[in-house]
């Protein structure tokens, strides 16, 4: 997404950062601070500790042991999580599930300007690893469950799952474990997850809200070229590195076909209305004819739009040769694909093999992610999200968005539960340092997002 096609969007000034906390915000801040300052990286941290700390706060708020399930497996004792249940008064109403992940990407103190595992307020921002991804939402979900416990029972049962392993491919994944081993514990009509949110202008004005409706599936493949090798003083044309390089070049030059589903069609239709000139006209043409290559070329100048239109595959790692003075016997490349909903891992591998040619083999790396399925644009979900946004963020457009990334939501989709990325938490246009250095969130955005998400859950829960 680019500012160009958002220029017509209404912009409302945010509440000044650093505004004094309301009394009801103090308990939330304490929970959020404790969570950010608990190291939950896969290398040195403990999601289990974080889950236990949140469970203790929920017990203090009145939850019984029967309402709380702390889980882990013996092989990964530090990768535990928490499921909490607030029973509703209407047993015929299907539950909703609030999903968040406790683990964070590694952060090295020597690289950061501030201690990444201390919550530091500076210049209207909270700094720290996980201040956005995903401890902001996880803290809001836990806080929401605590606040709802203190009031009248909702009509609909509300469940919360805070899990580990979302950020690391080969780590134990709590969301996957729950859906495969305890599906009854997390069964719900739909899931509210990360992936949505809002974007701010450089001067802190609200620009756009997005509700994530569906996501791609992430899958890695290995391209391998082999050769008997030999002495480098007598080179021959048959060289594993060259064969691999040729295969990668063919992958680079291939564009997967344009695809639309209900979400992306709605997204691009809205984008075409807001974007002026050549870009808007090209989107309109592409919606009418996905085979219009010239329109595709114009729209795809925006890398986010390009990725939203199709499956993408890109080389990310290379390894070749065994000695400086020897012809290479093996050359490998990792190709990372983001597969459009409805397209399969096997079909994508077959296309890569076709492109690579007979001298290079393509294998599917473990773990194999489930096939992404299109998520319905359900008015029972999208409607309340839009209506509550009009109350909290008047004039800010709300758009459905398919994520080009991947979350743990795909595991719930695989057992038939649709997943939606909740809007409400505004971040800066540069992604606020998520997965990078000096991750941060505006103080005002955190508290405004908390208010919005609490009201949204209440709207769904009755």
Description:
- The chain has helices at 23-36, 47-60, 135-149, 174-181, 183-186, 240-253, 262-274, 278-288, 293-299, 303-308, 345-356, 379-392, 409-413, 443-461; strands spanning 12-13, 68-73, 76-86, 96-101, 120-122, 125-127, 158-163, 190-193, 197-200, 205-215, 217-226, 230-231, 312-320, 326-327, 330-339, 360-364, 398-403, 419-421, 426-427, 440-442.
- With 462 residues, it is an alpha+beta fold.
- It folds into three domains: 3-215 and 372-461, Aminopeptidase (3-Layer(aba) Sandwich), CATH 3.40.630; 218-256 and 311-370, Alpha-Beta Plaits (2-Layer Sandwich), CATH 3.30.70; 258-308, no CATH class.
- The strands form four sheets. Strands 1, 2, 3, 4, 7, 8, 9, 10, 17, 18 and 19 form an eleven-stranded mixed sheet that branches.
- α3 (135-149) packs across α14 (443-461).
In CATH terms, the superfamily of the largest domain is: Zn peptidases
Which CATH architecture of the largest domain? 3-Layer(aba) Sandwich
| Individual helix count | 14
**What is the CA-based Rg, rounded?**
24 Å
Short key terms for the protein model shown above:
462 residues; alpha+beta; Aminopeptidase; Alpha-Beta Plaits; 3 domains; four-stranded antiparallel β-sheet; 14 helices; 20 strands; disordered N terminus
Short summary:
This protein is α+β, with helices and mostly antiparallel strands and 462 residues long.
């Amino acid at each position: 997404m680019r500012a160009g096609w958002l220029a017509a969007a209404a912009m409302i000034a945010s509440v000044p950062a650093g505004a004094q906390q309301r009394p009801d915000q103090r308990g939330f801040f304490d929970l959020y601070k404790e969570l950010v300052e608990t190291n939950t990286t896969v290398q040195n941290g403990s999601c289990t500790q974080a889950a236990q700390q949140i469970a203790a706060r929920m017990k203090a708020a009145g939850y019984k042991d029967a309402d709380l399930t702390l889980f882990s497996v013996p092989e990964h004792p530090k990768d535990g999580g928490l499921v909490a249940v607030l029973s509703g008064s209407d047993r015929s109403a299907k539950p909703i599930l609030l999903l968040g992940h406790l683990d964070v990407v590694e952060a090295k103190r020597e690289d950061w300007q501030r201690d990444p595992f201390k919550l530091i307020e500076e210049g209207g921002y909270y700094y720290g690893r996980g201040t956005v991804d995903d401890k902001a939402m996880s803290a809001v979900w836990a806080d929401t469950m605590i606040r709802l416990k203190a009031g009248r029972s909702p009509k609909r049962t509300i469940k919360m799952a805070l899990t580990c392993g979302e950020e690391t491919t080969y780590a134990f994944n709590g969301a996957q474990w729950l859906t495969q081993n305890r599906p009854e514990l997390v069964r719900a009509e739909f899931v509210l997850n990360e992936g949505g949110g809002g974007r701010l202008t450089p001067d802190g004005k609200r620009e756009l809200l997005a509700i994530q409706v569906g996501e791609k599936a992430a899958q890695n493949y290995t391209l391998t070229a082999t050769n008997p090798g030999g002495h480098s003083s007598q080179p021959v044309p048959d060289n594993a590195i060259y064969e691999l390089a040729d295969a990668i070049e063919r992958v680079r030059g291939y564009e997967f076909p344009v695809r639309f589903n209900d979400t992306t069609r709605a997204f691009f239709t809205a984008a075409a209305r807001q974007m002026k000139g050549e870009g808007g006209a090209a989107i309109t043409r592409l919606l009418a004819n996905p085979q219009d290559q010239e329109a595709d070329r114009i729209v795809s100048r925006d890398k986010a739009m390009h990725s939203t239109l199709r499956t993408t595959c890109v080389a990310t790692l290379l390894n070749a040769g065994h000695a400086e003075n020897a012809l290479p016997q093996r050359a490998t490349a990792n190709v990372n694909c983001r597969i459009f909903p409805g397209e399969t891992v096997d079909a994508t591998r077959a296309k890569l093999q076709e492109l690579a040619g007979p001298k290079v083999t393509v294998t599917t790396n473990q773990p194999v992610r489930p096939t992404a399925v299109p998520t319905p644009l359900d008015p029972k979900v999208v409607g309340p999200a839009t209506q509550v946004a009009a109350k909290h963020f008047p004039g800010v457009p709300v758009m459905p968005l398919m994520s080009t990334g991947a979350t743990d939501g795909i595991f719930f989709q695989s057992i038939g539960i649709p997943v939606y990325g909740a809007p409400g938490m505004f971040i800066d246009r540069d992604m606020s340092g998520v997965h990078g250095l000096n991750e941060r969130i505006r103080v005002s955005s955190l508290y405004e997002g908390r208010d919005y998400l609490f009201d949204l859950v209440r709207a769904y829960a009755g």
